[in-house]
Amino acid sequence: MEDIYQYIEDHKEMYLDWLMEICKQPSVAAQNRGIEETVNLVEQYLQRLSIAVENIPTSGNPIVYGELDSGKDRTLTFYNHYDVQPEDPIELWESPPFSPEIRDGKLFARGTADNKGTLLSRICAIHAYQQVYKELPINIKFIIEGEEEIGSPHLSEFTEKHPDKLTTDGCIWENGFKSTDGRLQVTLGCKGMLYVELHAKGANVDLHSAKAAIVTNPAWRLVWALSTLKNEQEEILIDGFYDRIQEMTMEEKELTESIDYKEREELEQLGLKSYLNNLTGFNLKEKLIFQPTCTICGMESGYTEQGAKTVLPSVAKAKIDFRLVSEQDPDEILQLLRKHLNKHGFEDIEIVRLKGQRAALTKLNDALVQKVVSSAEKFFEKKPQVMRSQAGTGPMYTLCQKFGIPAVGFGIGHAGSHNHAPNENIYIDDFIEGIKFAALVIHEF
Amino acid sequence: MEDIYQYIEDHKEMYLDWLMEICKQPSVAAQNRGIEETVNLVEQYLQRLSIAVENIPTSGNPIVYGELDSGKDRTLTFYNHYDVQPEDPIELWESPPFSPEIRDGKLFARGTADNKGTLLSRICAIHAYQQVYKELPINIKFIIEGEEEIGSPHLSEFTEKHPDKLTTDGCIWENGFKSTDGRLQVTLGCKGMLYVELHAKGANVDLHSAKAAIVTNPAWRLVWALSTLKNEQEEILIDGFYDRIQEMTMEEKELTESIDYKEREELEQLGLKSYLNNLTGFNLKEKLIFQPTCTICGMESGYTEQGAKTVLPSVAKAKIDFRLVSEQDPDEILQLLRKHLNKHGFEDIEIVRLKGQRAALTKLNDALVQKVVSSAEKFFEKKPQVMRSQAGTGPMYTLCQKFGIPAVGFGIGHAGSHNHAPNENIYIDDFIEGIKFAALVIHEF
What range(s) does the Peptidase M20 dimerisation domain occupy (chains A, B) (predicted)? Predict the structure, then answer.
């Protein structure tokens, strides 16, 4: 592998340029911005590897599918996505989100960590491998979708229409990062998700707030409805919400115990004194990885600009994500939510489902898991950290678990990468190292 | 008076042009937009009446003060304001808010009803009176402020520094409208107000919402805090909130009973099935005029654009107005609110006071009241409707009650004028009629 590592080292400026090129291109699925341009770019990258590229249309954004048949026994699939989260709130970015900028050894831009950086690390790894050895030791598939950040609503269209494109011996999942102690996280699962909007409506027009004495206020309706969903002890109050959650196994508890979680550093970085419910240690990590959530991601009603406007709003909206675990089913949770609102007298509040996804878990003793972990132990100075599941969500169930395919995630981010938030960034060294490690995994598999 | 009415009739196009001219000029106090330009315009109007104009600076927007000393015994003051509410939400306007447009006999623009139309009706009345009779029968004072829509925060600076400018025999209050049955509303009071923002803070940066499992969410904190302020039965739950409210007198009950309130029509217009708590009749009117409120005028947190963004917000804000009645004191209510939040464990939620104003009531048997009512009975086909108080708020206490000055309000709006909301409008006929009536009040006083 040394000659490949050397090749990567010698061409790191070029690979960094490739990454900066794609980070310049917005691709915000939530706002349908820049999708076509990004698809074209991704196709160009794959073509540099002489991979057979197909642009597979869906009812939403197309999936870029690539297949490199080296005539080998074994096939490894890379699942990635070319879409990114909205850059809002734009005013908190220190440099423009789609003008990649290098500061302090880090590359700042939307998508550097999630997920363009990790995608490119894999493309560059194959490129380097081909330059040095001409031929790969395995067959490769790329499934690169454009709607991961909005819940992959059309990925199952793809899986249903193209079962042949799914067959593989294992899937390397899209993303990952190094934990605060510098250990590569190797992740074996994702939380699921139900993402909804709640809409409350009042009069058909905003009114002078004097009328609030007698006319219903949708902002109050929404506040009261929301306040029934979760209490200040963070207990989600929807009947049946926790029913399908399984107890942790001993092995899961041990893995969780072994995670180095830099509480004090994180709290300091976030400007906080403590975590929710004063959680620490095992309980904190267990909550993060194994417990579901109910999160207000956004809410809006009435006048929100500067100063005092005395207005009675006509509409109030909230965006809520439920992170799901174990066997929780987003469709069932949606029904439970509707029942819950009705039970509390909020039949008037409309629920709009924006995305749904089941949680996924690859078995700890799977061969792919063993291979990735042993490669990481060989490559990195520090022992990798096996994570039973990430705290985040992805369509791992849709693409892998549903078909019995093992999936393992790792990537090039770090604990302070600010995924989904302003000033998203990666260390340039992590990117180059990530290219090398991806090449090693291909080699070992 | 007939010759004055005729003059007004002959020059109604000119007076309408005057009104459209000032409505073209934005003057949004909440956003500090167009103040200086509007002050200049108002001064020009007063100069057309040969009124001695003073631009009186305050720590906020200047007050335009005008005095026409006709050497008479009696003085009448007109209190008006040149500022307007923000035009937001702009997308619901059928024509641009600062491009006055005539449709169906109505003039649409921000400020037509509140308060530029009524201000102009008084200026035009004096103009017509002077053209026909040369001299006015009374002395006139104008106090035209530029911060009424943000709670008149600097009006007391003016009252403290210029007690001589306040002395008067009575004050005609800024605004009013015709009720749904076409009767002129003559209003003898205003509700008070406390307007605050509540700020909840979480981490110092927006985070990926996976972290919501362990990191505090200010949107939840705000929702929980708000839900303790008022229950679904519309009871405000702050200890001591109702303590300073006096019982209605028999006379007040009778006046309230006599109000024609077109419930069915209003509900239909607003697209609603019923009022809050299914109120109707006397109870509805009593709630609107005599009861305090606690209204969410706006709230915002996290991601509010299109689609699903999974973000844990770092900030959540709500704007709340409390309409106050009787002897409720905004400063005391602010203290009670702070105590209430602390008592419920929300010491972390910051309160920002944006405006405060006490309620005001002129005595029913005051001479000015009698004069305005008898003039209205003479002038209008329909009997005027005496309103003990408007449901809205103004600085009547600061300018009048505090100094024992009686104040009576009437104006040129109608029940569908949409004050503070999109598509604010007046009937052009009401404007012309309002000029005539203002001339009559001057004549009779």
Answer: 191-347
